[in-house]
Amino acid sequence: MPSRRASRADPILRAPRRALCSTKRERQAPGRTGADSPTPDRRGGHPSRRRLSFRARLGMIRVATGRIRKSADPPVRVAANRVGRATMSGRRIKRALISVYDKTGVVEFARTLRDEFGIEILSTGGTASLLRDSGIPVIAVEEITGVGEMLDGRVKTLHPTIHAAILADRDNPDHTRQLCDAGIEPIDMVVVNLYPFEQTITEPDCTVEQATEMIDIGGPCLLRAAAKNHKHVFVVSRPDRYAWACRALREWDRDETRAAALQRGGEDAFVQTASYDGTIAGWLSRDKEPDATDVKHILLCARKELRYGENPHQVSAIFTCPDDHRQGVLSSSGVDDNAAKQMSFNNFLDSNAALLLCEELASGRLPQIACFVKHSNACGVGIGSSPIEAYRSAYLGNPNAAMGGILAVNFEVDASVAEAVMDSLRRWGKSARAGAFFVEVWLAPSFEKDAIDVIRTKKRWGANVRLLNAVRPALSPDSGQWDLRRITGGILLQSSDTIGLNEDEWQVATERSPTGREWADLRLAWLIAKHTTSNAVSICKNGMLIGNGAGQMSRVMSCRIATWLANDNGHAEALSGAVAASDGFFPFRDGPDILMDAGISAIIQPGGAKRDAETVAACNERGAAMVFTRTRHFRH
Questions:
Q1: What are the tens digits of pLDDT across the range 610-634?
Q2: Dist. CA 319–CA 395, nearest whole Å
């Protein structure tokens, strides 16, 4: 007979109570036959389906709360002890709720839970059907709740019977009493993964309605409930955790193993729900103008651990951003797995710099492009009518700095290009006084198979070069992305610098305008300076970077370094008639004087200094052209 407390309960709770706190004769649920019917044992029930009578449960509660004397009759005392070991101490998992969208491996996992560990399985909808069809006995959630799925499956597990079974603190006697009074059996394990919202919104033809339907409600609620109670409930929130969960269950009697697994499961679950909610929040605000005062959901998902950071004593890993439409471009775009070395922390930094520069140059409608980057700055850029011509110009810009650098090109790499790159030192480097040559990482839109064979076999260093299909020249910078910088006690956030050749804002400030050739080189130099560490001064001639002054504390020093590098790398004659770009304005005329003394004939800079008139006058004295862009491109 139900207790008086239960008789006053909600009718929805009354039916489960009779089923779960019933006598042995009432234990078999009606309508469950075939694979779902437990095989009775000699005592009248499947071992994993045996229930304690209500009297035994009541005795357990009284023992736990001190309301029974030690002289209690033996059946009650034995029952209380048995249940205490199985549930309250957390040493045995009796029931698992499995409800997954991604059903990869779930049948095998559920079969292991059932056959090896004797765990009773509750399930919902398609998951339950799949498990039944695979011969695995399951109990449908609606048998527990007394309510079927509603609203086209939107409501399945959102019910007090389910969430109380997950959230109850097994160490709290009052929680245990309330479960028993309501006829609720604890759920000790939750296996849930979520609707694929992120994958859905990346589909080109995804509608708002389709995206909205992929916002999971019940799944995150189950994960959060289980993770909150992770001291007692084992959470498995990803298919790739099934093998790990089985290993943990095989050592469940070891306190350290069990505690670590419960902790890790709860941690994983909250990471999943935080990432999921953040992705949805980002999607809902997708059309909103960026506002630095908004609350930002910065989602980072660990991809892999790196060998070390910038230096060997620093720990390092790479994470991806689920809300970035190009997530994983650098971390998962390898052409093959034959490179003997993996990408390092510094490789990723320099590869990203090379990628951004190459793609921006390509978006400026320039022809074949090749770039060398070292320590995040361009040390060689070449433009040509053919891939090999562009590469040769990039390499000869600074052949010593190109050694061990990052190479990015905007064209497909075929066997002829591969031969030229692998043979750079013999073809051009030795005559330019280069001592050696190899490439750390090579980025391109694609690599032909024959080209890969050449790269891997032509030179010994070819076995180590990392080949990445990462360059996408057609893409324009994404104004919705944010740049982040960590500082002590906080994070700096800014919108991405997406302004490139905004020539509508440009103004010729001198008496002479640039020639056609100078205009082409000024555009190239301006974009290179944008991607060079401040203070930046970039010198170009005939579609080739010949000197780059980067990262200096004064702009005058950047001018000196840029001209010195051009001379040192054999471009002294090319300085005559070359052009220069400065990422910030010249506060005095001394910088332009140094450039013009070296032979520079045209300069592009933001303008806006108090002494702009003096700088312009200096150019007019020499017959040089100067262009103001009205845009600054500091890069710290």
A1: 999 999 999 999 999 999 999 999 9
A2: 32
